[in-house]
């Protein structure tokens, strides 16, 4: 039975992991393309991406309650309840669009006051404004993807992400460097390529949804239901808070590095792009764990819920241990994939060596967060992330960066400490939850 849970988790997680890697590859392509322009262009993309994603991904956390409600509905073979959660998720997405756009816009004046380097702001703000236009299709994509994954439809999502990379790569090649008689737009061109790829992703998931459920348009009540919205929000608020806490601390770290110089910020962005790529492995497993645990609990099989969660945790730990070895042994080779600038390569290599020490714990924290979400617990991870990042990791990092003059490596050391603590605590808390499942009949 344990082997069955492992194989079932891997079958679901495999396409999700590839989809997450496809999502991350889009950002890496942006960095690699503008990296051929200048270090300042990399820094501009770093600033704009960090600000936008902190707001947009935090908002998308409001939809993570769909992992719990939709997966448990499909586990109970209640399609109507699953469709109802989808509709309420779409309404939440619609309400979030003006909020995200507005927050991103009002953040611009504060960046200069925060002390971000003027050279970085000159390229970063136009790029950020272009990204803001992609908010509606991005939130639609997030909502549809959560529904499809919770339903166990993962391969089509994977193919959409992989083909979206071709759209993004082509758009970057044309717009960043100026092909076919078009002007070379640099970082702004990369932003427009991202916008087009997100339109494609949202449209493709709409087509997939209609194919797997042909009757959804005519058989579904598309009116908002306040009780359904409240049920999603009850789960979504803590999940969004957890994401906001996590992304927020990296946003602050990016802004703090931006106070140093453009070279440090470029190195920071390359290192972030790399660890976000390794993070996609356990993130896909986290989504699979949420679905498998939720579906098992929906059909009343608590023991399978426990085994599915542990299977995902084990695979995530193994994958991130391998990633740690790679980051520790070949950091310069990784950095060279992004840029030929020697100063940026040296700075990024130092940060990647530090990142190697938190890879295992990063994997543990994200997979256990997903497993707990499948069980309906989104509050505990939020509290753990807040305490670990904001009360311990960031203060230590700021002290090392500015008080001890370690620079960016000081900030990364503090964040590494935070992840080690968060991963350890959440693993213990999942163990307690899994033991309670095992006692249920």
Detailed description of the structure:
With 441 residues, this protein is an all-alpha fold. The chain has one domain (2-438). 86% of the residues lie in helices and 0% in strands. Helix 1 packs antiparallel against helix 8, helix 10 (226-258) runs parallel beside helix 16 (379-403) and helix 12 runs antiparallel to helix 15. It is globular and about 55 Å long. The chain starts with a helix and ends with a helix. 59% of the residues are buried.
Short key terms for the protein model shown above:
0% strand; 441 residues; mainly alpha; 17 helices
- Termini gap: 16 Å
Fraction of helical residues:
over 70%
- How much of the polypeptide forms β-strand, as a percent range? under 5%
Q: What Rg is obtained from the alpha carbons, in whole angstroms?
A: 21 Å
The averaged pLDDT comes out at 84
Quaternary structure classification: single chain
Write the element-wise H/E pattern from the N-terminal end onward: HHHHHHHHHHHHHHHHH
Number of DSSP helical runs: 17
Helix-strand makeup class = mainly alpha
Shape: globular
Low-confidence parts lasting 5 or more residues at pLDDT below 50? none
Count up the domains. Answer: 1
Count the E strands: 0
Describe the structure concisely for a colleague.
This protein is mostly helical and 441 residues long. It contains 17 helices and no strands.
List the helices and strands and how they pair.
Blueprint: H1 2-35, H2 39-60, H3 65-75, H4 79-114, H5 118-132, H6 135-150, H7 155-177, H8 187-212, H9 216-219, H10 226-258, H11 262-298, H12 302-329, H13 331-336, H14 342-356, H15 359-374, H16 379-403, H17 408-438
Helix pairs in contact: 1-2, 1-7, 1-8, 1-11, 1-12, 2-4, 2-5, 2-10, 2-11, 3-4, 3-6, 3-10, 3-11, 4-5, 4-6, 4-10, 5-8, 6-8, 7-8, 10-16, 11-12, 11-14, 11-15, 12-14, 12-15, 12-17, 14-17, 15-17, 16-17
């Amino acid at each position: 039975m344990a082997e069955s849970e492992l194989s079932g988790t891997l079958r679901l997680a495999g396409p999700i992991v590839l989809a997450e890697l496809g999502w991350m590859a889009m950002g890496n392509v942006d960095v690699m393309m503008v990296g051929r322009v200048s270090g300042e262009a990399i820094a501009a993309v770093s600033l704009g991406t960090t600000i936008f994603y902190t707001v947009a991904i935090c908002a998308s956390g409001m939809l993570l309650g769909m992992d719990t409600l939709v997966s448990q509905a499909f586990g109970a073979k209640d399609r109507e309840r699953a469709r109802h959660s989808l509709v309420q998720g779409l309404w939440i997405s619609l309400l979030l669009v003006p909020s995200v756009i507005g927050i991103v816009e009002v953040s611009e004046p504060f960046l200069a006051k925060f002390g971000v380097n003027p050279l970085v702001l000159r390229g970063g703000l136009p790029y950020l404004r272009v990204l803001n236009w992609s908010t509606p299709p991005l939130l639609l994509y997030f909502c549809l993807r959560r529904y499809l994954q919770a339903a166990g439809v993962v391969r089509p999502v994977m193919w959409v992400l992989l083909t979206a990379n071709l759209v993004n790569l082509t758009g970057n090649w044309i717009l960043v460097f100026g092909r076919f008689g078009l002007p070379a737009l640099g970082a702004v061109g990369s932003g427009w390529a991202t916008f087009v790829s997100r339109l494609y992703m949202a449209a493709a998931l709409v087509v997939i949804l209609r194919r797997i459920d042909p009757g959804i348009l005519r058989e579904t009540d598309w009116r908002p239901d306040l009780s359904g919205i409240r049920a999603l929000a009850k789960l979504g608020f803590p999940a969004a808070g957890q994401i906001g806490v996590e992304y927020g601390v990296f946003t602050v770290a990016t802004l703090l590095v931006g106070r140093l110089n453009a070279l440090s910020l470029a190195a920071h962005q390359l290192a972030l792009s790399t660890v976000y790529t390794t993070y996609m492995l356990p993130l896909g497993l986290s989504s699979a764990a949420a679905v498998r645990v939720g579906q098992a609990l929906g059909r009343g099989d608590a023991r399978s819920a426990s085994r599915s969660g542990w299977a995902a945790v084990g695979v995530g730990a193994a994958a991130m241990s391998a990633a740690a070895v790679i980051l520790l042994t070949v950091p310069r080779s990784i950095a060279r994939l992004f840029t030929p600038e020697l100063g940026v390569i040296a700075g990024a290599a130092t940060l990647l060596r530090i990142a190697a020490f938190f890879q295992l714990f990063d994997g543990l924290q994200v997979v256990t967060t997903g497993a707990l979400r499948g069980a309906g617990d989104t509050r505990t991870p939020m509290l753990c992330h807040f305490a670990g990042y904001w009360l311990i990791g960031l203060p230590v990092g700021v002290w090392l960066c500015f008080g001890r003059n370690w620079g960016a490596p000081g900030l990364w050391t503090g964040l590494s400490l935070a992840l080690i603590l968060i991963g350890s605590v959440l693993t213990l808390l999942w163990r307690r939850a899994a033991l309670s499942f095992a006692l249920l009949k």
